[in-house]
Amino acid sequence: MLIDPLGRAGCNATMLTAIAVTIAAYLLGSLASAILVARVMGLPDPRGEGSGNPGATNVLRYGGRIAGAATLVGDGAKGTVPVLAALLLGVPDAGLAAVGLAALLGHVFPVFFGFQGGKGVATGLGVLLGWSWLAFLAAAATWLAVAAIFRMSSLAALVALFLAPFYIYGFEATPWISAAAVAVTAAVVWRHTSNIRRIVAGTEPRIGNSG
Question: What is the residue extent of each domain of the chain?
Answer without folding.
Answer: 5-201
